[in-house]
Amino acid sequence: TELGVERRFVPESCPRAVRPGDFVRYHYLGAFPDGTRFDSSYDRGSTFNVFVGKGQLIAGMDRALVGMCVNERRFVKIPPQLAYGSEGVPGVIPPNAVLHFDVLLIDLWNSEDEVQVQTYFKPEKCPRTVQVSDFVRYHYNGTFLDGTLFDSSHNRMRTYDTYVGIGWLIPGMDQGLLGMCVGEKRIITIPPFLAYGEDGDGKEIPGQASLVFDVVLLDLHNPKDGIAIENQLVPESCERRSQTGDFLRYHYNGTLLDGTLFDSSYSRNRTYDTYVGKGYVIAGMDEGLLGVCTGEKRRIIIPPHLGYGEEGRGKIPGSAVLVFDIHVVDFHNPSDSVSITVHYKPSNCTVLSKKGDYLKYHYNASLLDGTLLDSTHSLGKTYNIVLGSGQVVLGMDMGLQDMCVGERRTVVIPPHLGYGEDGVEGEVPGSAVLVFDIELLELVSGLPEGYMFVWNGEVSPNLFEEIDQNHDGEVLLEEFSEYIQTQVDTGKGKLAPGFDFEKIVKNMFTNQDRDGNGKVTAEEFKLKDQEAKEEHDEL
């Protein structure tokens, strides 16, 4: 004679219970006291959907559902006066029948409900939140209120990418995503009238279903965004900033907004080298690399329309915001020449280095970022060259010009006057700007250009006869070499400094041996000024 309610299962968590006026979706088995089944929602494959307390149910069920939690199971005994009474339901329920219902509550909402947002993780730093018209990339698990999974972007291994607040999403999701930070995790509960309504989506989601989305926001930008630059380290001394047309060498770590690493020059142990402002890199990087100093570290945040767009590339998903943490190692311009800074010059500085001079100097060689490459000090000996003879890179030949003994200077050499694009394997990186700190220790004046030997006094009128010691009318290399050595030893002649004696003498002999037979005759023998005069007369 009375309504009987037995709570056979009550979930641990029950954030909300049924109240009159709520809309519920539930499954049930209907049977008579002898166990004979007269109805089942399971057999129909769909829940029973109805408002509670509005007379849409038999009175006993209206009362029995009040206070239920989602996923709660109740066994309900309803007397006839609270069911179908003395009339029953012809062909189904006899008059004055007691009814037993095994009820499982699947869903619960109210027409006054709004979207519910529960944030369970929020990053410490949240520089920006989702606003209307932003484009977002997020992962989600979609479930019903009873926890049944109906969809997951994780299973597809691809984020859901969409604009927010412009009607691309169901209204409840449009609302639920607003205000999120990248990295934030929240649960968004959406009533059906802000989701797929009475009809559902025709696939996985039934009509009148509340939806629960567990969302993690991975990316966020607006189509109107430009790049964002965060200066992390700017050197105190910054004599020059990069401009369009400059060539840069820099290291970088490339990540997505959620911190996922997609690329790193450090892992390759090699800088990324490129021209700036010429379209060699993505548009956002072209812009972000302008105005940097050597040694500067900055973060460049690039929206996808200035990055790899909707398609993405490699490990970079479509529509992804990119974050580059860069460290500028050096830069130069192809029009750059050698830069010379004099730190010390002796007061008595009358003899200046010139082409052909033999120089001895110390140096420290480094990259623009200060990385030491080489040092004569560590070797304990000077570096010795003939200036302008191609024994060093062109930039060093230029940097050592017009220097006096005791002078100290810094010479900065762009790569096109140094070791070029290839560099020196294992020693000098390709396209590297070089910095040499130089001290000139000794200078031996060279000979006039084109000369390997000169006389310090008058030339003997019988020069050939003096060289031809055995007077056979022919001079061999041994005779020639011995004679030149004697002139140098006695101070009558001078060889070009810095070159190997035997090579110079052999070169001089070969120039005189005009028929190439290994002997020089009187007819072949001519001094350099005589050769020049003959050429002039002939012309």
From TrEMBL:
<protein>
    <recommendedName>
        <fullName>peptidylprolyl isomerase</fullName>
        <ecNumber>5.2.1.8</ecNumber>
    </recommendedName>
</protein>
<feature type="domain" description="PPIase FKBP-type">
    <location>
        <begin position="21"/>
        <end position="109"/>
    </location>
</feature>
<keyword id="KW-0413">Isomerase</keyword>
<feature type="region of interest" description="Disordered">
    <location>
        <begin position="512"/>
        <end position="539"/>
    </location>
</feature>
<dbReference type="InterPro" id="IPR011992">
    <property type="entry name" value="EF-hand-dom_pair"/>
</dbReference>
<keyword id="KW-0479">Metal-binding</keyword>
<feature type="domain" description="PPIase FKBP-type">
    <location>
        <begin position="133"/>
        <end position="221"/>
    </location>
</feature>
<dbReference type="InterPro" id="IPR018247">
    <property type="entry name" value="EF_Hand_1_Ca_BS"/>
</dbReference>
<dbReference type="Pfam" id="PF00254">
    <property type="entry name" value="FKBP_C"/>
</dbReference>
<dbReference type="InterPro" id="IPR001179">
    <property type="entry name" value="PPIase_FKBP_dom"/>
</dbReference>
<comment type="function">
    <text>PPIases accelerate the folding of proteins during protein synthesis.</text>
</comment>
<feature type="domain" description="EF-hand">
    <location>
        <begin position="500"/>
        <end position="535"/>
    </location>
</feature>
<dbReference type="InterPro" id="IPR051989">
    <property type="entry name" value="FKBP-like_isomerase"/>
</dbReference>
<keyword id="KW-0697">Rotamase</keyword>
<dbReference type="InterPro" id="IPR002048">
    <property type="entry name" value="EF_hand_dom"/>
</dbReference>
<keyword id="KW-0256">Endoplasmic reticulum</keyword>
<keyword id="KW-0106">Calcium</keyword>
<keyword id="KW-0325">Glycoprotein</keyword>
<dbReference type="GO" id="GO:0003755">
    <property type="term" value="F:peptidyl-prolyl cis-trans isomerase activity"/>
</dbReference>
<keyword id="KW-0677">Repeat</keyword>
<feature type="domain" description="PPIase FKBP-type">
    <location>
        <begin position="356"/>
        <end position="444"/>
    </location>
</feature>
<dbReference type="InterPro" id="IPR046357">
    <property type="entry name" value="PPIase_dom_sf"/>
</dbReference>
<feature type="domain" description="EF-hand">
    <location>
        <begin position="455"/>
        <end position="490"/>
    </location>
</feature>
<feature type="domain" description="PPIase FKBP-type">
    <location>
        <begin position="245"/>
        <end position="332"/>
    </location>
</feature>
<dbReference type="GO" id="GO:0005509">
    <property type="term" value="F:calcium ion binding"/>
</dbReference>
<keyword id="KW-0732">Signal</keyword>
<dbReference type="GO" id="GO:0005783">
    <property type="term" value="C:endoplasmic reticulum"/>
</dbReference>
